[in-house]
Write a structure and sequence with these properties.
The structure holds 2 protein chains of 2 kinds.
Chain A lengths: L3 E3 L4 E4 L4 E7 L6 E7 L6 E6 L3 E4 L2 E6 L4 E6 L8 E8 L6 E3 L3 E6 L1
Parallel strand pairs in A: 2-11
Antiparallel strand pairs in A: 1-3, 3-8, 4-5, 4-9, 6-7, 7-8, 9-10, 9-11
Chain B lengths: L4 E3 L2 E4 L5 E6 L6 E7 L5 E8 L2 E5 L7 E4 L6 E5 L8 E8 L8 E2 L3 E5 L1
Parallel strand pairs in B: 2-11
Antiparallel strand pairs in B: 1-3, 3-8, 4-5, 4-9, 5-6, 7-8, 9-10, 9-11
Classes of the chains: A mainly beta, B mainly beta.
Chain lengths: 110, 114
């Protein structure tokens, strides 16, 4: 089983739609999680940190379900500029190393 | 806002040649990383570095790879004898440390091995 697993998509949604991505992790000891955004051929950029049950920042909401070992990212009122790949990241509690999922691609269309 | 900087942005080299990829992490950060991303694939961990030594490395990080912090600011990745499959985007990252500290990435070096 992959350490961090995401549905690669692509998710094609119209502007204004609400879209949700899920991510599962295998290491139950992982304590911290992040969502990064990556544009084509660019570096990953931090979108949100997820520590406890969840976090909200404007149109973006991240939730953590430790019992089921998954993290979700909800994007409301999608914008064209939200088109990117969204990377789910788990922090290994043993080493502090960040483990990346393969990413979920979002394409928001007018 | 302070940022991680990487040079060069693009490096083309012939198979078998040595390359050095350079990074300047954020100045007050203590943990440094190299990740790579082959085109169309996931971001993969290569190595982490703390207190002037490697703290962890992946199976990708074999004897052809080495890292160094030659002075107080630079953090380098050397590939001794490049192979075609080393072609990828290489990202340097740094963090203050602690499980809640996210990584800050540089904008990467695209390595093309011909």
């Amino acid at each position: 089983r992959k350490e961090v697993e995401q549905d690669p998509g692509p998710f094609n949604v119209p502007e204004g739609a609400t879209v949700a991505f899920n991510c599962t992790y295998s290491n139950s000891a992982s304590q911290s999680f992040f969502w990064y955004r990556q544009d084509c051929r660019k570096e990953p950029k931090l979108l949100m940190s997820v520590y406890s049950s969840g976090n909200e920042d404007g149109r973006f909401t991240a939730q953590l379900n430790r019992a089921s070992q998954y993290i979700s990212l909800l994007i409301r009122d999608s914008k064209l500029s939200d088109s990117a790949t969204y990377l789910c990241v788990a922090v290994s509690s043993n080493t502090g190393k960040l483990i990346f999922g393969q990413g979920t691609t979002l394409q928001v269309k007018p | 806002e302070p940022e991680v900087t990487q040079t060069p942005s693009h490096q083309v080299t012939q198979m078998g040649q040595e390359v050095i990829l350079r990074c300047v992490p954020i100045s007050n950060h203590l943990y440094f990383y190299w990740y790579r991303q082959i085109l169309g694939q996931k971001v993969e961990f290569l190595v982490s570095f703390y207190n002037n030594e490697i703290s962890e490395k992946s199976e990708i990080f074999d004897d052809q790879f080495s890292v160094e912090r030659p002075d107080g600011s630079n953090f380098t990745l050397k590939i001794r004898s490049t192979k075609l499959e080393d072609s990828a985007m290489y990202f340097c990252a740094s963090t203050e440390g602690g499980l809640r500290s996210p990584l800050h990435f540089g904008n990467g070096t695209r390595l093309t091995v011909t």
